[in-house]
Each structure stands twice: as structure tokens, then as C-alpha cells.
From TrEMBL:
The active site is at residues 54, 127. It comes from Sulfurovum lithotrophicum. Residues 7-391 form the Catalase core domain. Keywords: Heme, Hydrogen peroxide, Iron, Metal-binding, Oxidoreductase, Peroxidase. SMART domains: Catalase. Heme binds at residue 337. GO terms for biological process: hydrogen peroxide catabolic process; response to hydrogen peroxide. Its cofactor is heme. Its EC number is 1.11.1.6. One of its GO terms (molecular function) is catalase activity. SUPFAM superfamilies: Heme-dependent catalase-like. This is Catalase. The keyword Magnesium does not apply. GO terms for cellular component: cytoplasm.
Length: 480
């Protein structure tokens, strides 16, 4: 087979298309990775006007109420006292489908909440699964392309999906989740939410703790079988959207208990699992859930476009006391999410009513498409100055990341078999009937892939659990 050289837009050959440029194997992504920037920036602009991912969604206003004191871990004002309430806006979504797609498709669900805090807006942007398919942002456009449509037929392709997954074994944990019945939740009210990524808390002593967020549904988890989901896709493709809207309209306000897992900063260095690898979970036995508060949705939007479609979320929207981590996928999202919003809604998207913080905004940003306020009036938009202008607040600086290592394109420093351990653990946690549903769902999709792709993917399933892989293999052979 003739080799085709992958190149950048200016024709330069690409030396590595699997790993972003980072400072050390666990270090954050470097700004000098111009190929990553080019790849993400082009990906963010591939379609208009809907979101590239999370296009189909529903949302509602609500409140977050603190129920437990966690000020030993964070100085964020939102958590400053038990009983404190903060208004919120939450958007749920499917990930891969277009705006007209069915709510019940087998797909992860987005779970994004904007907290309008006294220190600015904080966006908690996650999914209904605690892990993701990949762990390096350089692979994200490629992954999403496999979830979209073929360039010739404009049809979706199981073969395309499994081709990518079989070559990306780190996806096995999320595949096991997606093809279980959790891949088709019964509406948005009956599913959990997770930050998936590792973030950081910073307390009043400027100490850092690594943190993961878990939002546990108080309505109870309910999922749809594959047959139920398929039937609803034909009879009521807006099932989840309708269920959320009607429940709030009827005064049945859905709620989630918000929990965190806390890891002291120093423990990350020697922990058995790379804590910044988004394809892995932290075992609760090591880092138990700590209750933080309750998120309640209690007000429907008055205008879908104005409030839901124009809502713009990004993990880059953070407040003092809540920080980031060297999680490579998170680092990529810090660029990609706001870049997408600037393209989709315009550079002034944060001034739209649904995105505007409750606190006064003072910056030097001027002009740009769709500037609809006073554009800063006659105020000066530079600093330092002899005049009264907005200035920095050095007391809010965060403790530095501990970074070491040469700048290079690193894979995550994990054991070769680590990608299969948690997927196998999840499979063995399922009941027999849940295992049967999982295998049936996988076979229904994997049977549409080529035999070469099937063989490679089955080898991954066997590494996770021999029975898991053999059962899939047997059913695939029976389908021929």
C-alpha cells in the first residue's frame, strides 16, 4: 500500500498525529503546538451554524444550594457557606447527532451548567459518563469525524467508528459504557453528570487539590433498552426535550446531588492511575465522594434560541478557588470551546444575556461583530496607565503547576494493559442481563465492520475480560 504523507495546511509533513506537545509526559499542552491549534481551529469551523458537537439539546434555569462545608479545599465564593444559593443555567445534549436527530440515540449526553457566581461565571462542562473515548486533544477531530457522516453517501458508518476505536484501545472503557443501557438514558432527568476531567481546587492557604465532580440524579437512574430507544426515535424523537420541559412546567423540578472526589496535589505523583487520564476513573475506595450541594432545575426558558441555542459553555470559564489540571484533553478544550463559540456566535458571545455574568465586566475588549452594548464608551482600553483603568488582582494568582520534562509529543505514561483494566472491571460489575444487553448492542454495530477491524477490536475486549471478548466473538460468528 502506497504511503500518503499527512501534512499541515501549508504542506509541511506531520511528524506525530497521536500526541500533543507537552512539558513532560504528564505536563500541560504547550502553546507552541501549532499543529494542534491548526487542527482544532479548522475542526471548530467545519460546520455552520449549529454546534459541531452537542448540537441537539435542551436546557433550563435553576439554583445550586450548598449543603456541606468544603472551604478547607477551596476558597471559591460559591461554596463559602452552607445554604448559599447561586442561580444556574443547565444544558443537556446528545453529542454526535445534528439538531434534528433523535434524543434517544446511542450517544453520550452532554451535561453543562453555568453558575452565575459573585466572582464571575463558572462553567462545569461534562457528560453523563465519567470517562471519554480518547485522552489527547490531537485525536479529537478524528474521533468526531467517525461519529459524523461519510463524504460520499452522507450516511453514518459503523465501520468508520470501529476502525478508529480498534486503533485506539484507550476507548474501551467508554465503549463498554456507551453500549450498555447507560448509552440510552431515559431522558435527561434520570442520568448522572460528571466533570470527567480532573480540575483543581485552591484554598485560602493557596494549597491545591485535584478534584472530580459527580452529579447524582435524585430522580433515580433509568435507562432505555435498545428496542425502546429505537421505537421512541421514530415516534417521539424529542422525547428527552419534552420530558424535561413538561416536568418543570408541572412543578416536578429535577435535582442532582453534587459530589466531589478530592486528591491532595502531592498524591498524584505516585498514584497507581494517572489522575489526569480522562479514560480512567478514580476508585471511590481511594477517593470517596464528598457531598457539596444540590442542583435544582426549576424554570423553563421563555425562548429556546435566545437561552438554549445561544448558551455558550467552556471549561475556561473559571473563578478564584477553582482551577485546571494537566489533563491533556481538558487543555485542548480550553482552546477549542471558546474558539467554537467565537465562530458560532461571534467574538462578543459572552455579552449575550444568557452568558452575561451577574458581576460587572471590565476589560479592554472593543468592537467585533454584533457589538450590541455601549462598546466601552469613551473609557481607555489599555493598561498600565496614569489614569483610572481596570487593573490586575495579583492576590488571585494560583500556585504554580509542578512541571518537568522536555517538550515533546508524549503518550500518557501508563502501563500497556491499563486501558483494559477498568473496562473489564465495569463489565464484571454488570448483572448477567446487563452484560447480555451490552454484548447484543455491540454485536449489532460491530457486525457492520470489516472482519479485520472486528478481529482487532475483539482482541481488546478479550484483554479486558476473556468472557467479554469470547461472547462477542461467538455472537459475531453466529451472525454470519
Amino acid at each position: 500500500m502506497k504511503k500518503i504523507d499527512l501534512t499541515t495546511a501549508n504542506g509541511r509533513k506531520v511528524d506525530n498525529n497521536q500526541n500533543s506537545l507537552t512539558a513532560g509526559s504528564r505536563g500541560p499542552v504547550l502553546m507552541q503546538d501549532v499543529y494542534l491549534q491548526e487542527k482544532l481551529a479548522h475542526f471548530d469551523r467545519e460546520e455552520i451554524p449549529e454546534r459541531i458537537v452537542h448540537a441537539k439539546g435542551a436546557g433550563a434555569h435553576g439554583t445550586f444550594t450548598v449543603t456541606n462545608d468544603i472551604t478547607q479545599y477551596t476558597k471559591a465564593a460559591i461554596f463559602s457557606e452552607v445554604g448559599k444559593q447561586t442561580r444556574t443555567f443547565t444544558r443537556f445534549s446528545t453529542v454526535g447527532g445534528e439538531r434534528g436527530s433523535a434524543d434517544t440515540a446511542r450517544d453520550p449526553r452532554g451535561f453543562a451548567t453555568k453558575f452565575y457566581t459573585a466572582e464571575g461565571n463558572w462553567d462545569l462542562v461534562g457528560n453523563n459518563t465519567p470517562v471519554f473515548f480518547i485522552r489527547d486533544p490531537l485525536k479529537f477531530p478524528d474521533f468526531i469525524h467517525t461519529q459524523k457522516r461519510m463524504p460520499d453517501s452522507n450516511l453514518k458508518s459503523d465501520n468508520m467508528m470501529w476502525d478508529f476505536w480498534s486503533k485506539s484501545p484507550e476507548s474501551l472503557h467508554q465503549i463498554t459504557t456507551l453500549f450498555s443501557n447507560r448509552g440510552t438514558p431515559d431522558g435527561y432527568r434520570h442520568m448522572n453528570g460528571y466533570s470527567s476531567h480532573t480540575y483543581s481546587f485552591i484554598n485560602a492557604n493557596n494549597e491545591r487539590f485535584w478534584v472530580k465532580f459527580h452529579l447524582k440524579t435524585m430522580q433515580g437512574i433509568k435507562n432505555l433498552s435498545a428496542d425502546e430507544a429505537t421505537k421512541l426515535a421514530g415516534t417521539n424523537p424529542d422525547y428527552a426535550t419534552e420530558d424535561l420541559f413538561v416536568s418543570i412546567k408541572n412543578g416536578e423540578f429535577p435535582s442532582w446531588k453534587v459530589h466531589v472526589q478530592i486528591m491532595p496535589e502531592v498524591e498524584a505523583e505516585n498514584y497507581a492511575i494517572n489522575p489526569f487520564d480522562v479514560t480512567k476513573v478514580w476508585p471511590h475506595a481511594d477517593y470517596p465522594l464528598i457531598e457539596v450541594g444540590i442542583l435544582e432545575l426549576n424554570k423553563n426558558p421563555k425562548n429556546y434560541f435566545n437561552e438554549v441555542e445561544q448558551a455558550a459553555f467552556s471549561p475556561s470559564n473559571k473563578v478564584p478557588g477553582i482551577g485546571l489540571s494537566p489533563d491533556k484533553m481538558l487543555q485542548g478544550r480550553l482552546f477549542s470551546y471558546p474558539d467554537t463559540q467565537r465562530y458560532r456566535l461571534g467574538v462578543n458571545y459572552n455579552a449575550l444575556p444568557i452568558n452575561k455574568p451577574d458581576v460587572e465586566v471590565n476589560n479592554g475588549f472593543r468592537n467585533g461583530a454584533m457589538r450590541f452594548d455601549d462598546n466601552g464608551g469613551d473609557s481607555l482600553n489599555y493598561e498600565p496607565s496614569h489614569y483610572t483603568v481596570p487593573t490586575e488582582s495579583p492576590e488571585l494568582s494560583e500556585p504554580p503547576f509542578k512541571i518537568n520534562g522536555d517538550a515533546d509529543r508524549y503518550a500518557y505514561d501508563s502501563d500497556e494493559n491499563s486501558d483494559f483494566v477498568q473496562a473489564g472491571n465495569l463489565y464484571r460489575l454488570l448483572s448477567k442481563s446487563e452484560q447480555n444487553d451490552l454484548v447484543t448492542n455491540i454485536v449489532g454495530s460491530l457486525s457492520n465492520a470489516t472482519s479485520e477491524i472486528q478481529a482487532l477490536q475483539i482482541s481488546h475486549f478479550k484483554k479486558a475480560d476473556l468472557g467479554y471478548g469470547r461472547t462477542i466473538e461467538k455472537q459475531l460468528r453466529g451472525n454470519k
